[in-house]
Amino acid sequence: MVTNTAAPRSRAALALAISVLAVVAASVIGGLASATSAQDYARLEQPSWAPPSWVFGPVWTVLYGLMALAAWLVWRTGPSEQTRRALTLYAVQLVLNAAWTPLFFGLGWRGVAFAELTVLLVVLVATVALFWRRSVVAGALLVPYLLWSTFALALNFAVWQLNN
Known about the structure:
It is found in: Membrane. There is one protein chain. The chain has helices at residues 6-33, 37-43, 56-75, 81-106, 110-134, 136-162. It is mainly alpha-helical. Helix content is 81%, strand content 0%.
């Protein structure tokens, strides 16, 4: 008996492509909302521990790659209610992720951005937990994003307070 493995491989490749496109869309939306965010960031009063603006691009590139891989690994665990729930929460946190830059830089609503980032962190913690249940590797791949987002929350709060 000969089995056709091309169809599952092509579905897996399509799922990986969709996962990558989702994080690219989130980053593009954020980037389009404030094309001058590096200059805006430099003009803000910042705490002494704030990183330089050039750090954000490389960090987010790595984080988005890890996020895409994690979502793909969860998708590969197979169709189930738990997989759908995990990927739905993942999609929600991606939308929240994309919304932060327009709030913080585009509109200058640093307090609203802080509240939004707080909600993002709650959703992200739940996403990490659900991903971990589906795939330990997928859950672990989101931990750097969770840590960076926690740092970003503290930085957002400090910048908000210093520029209020």
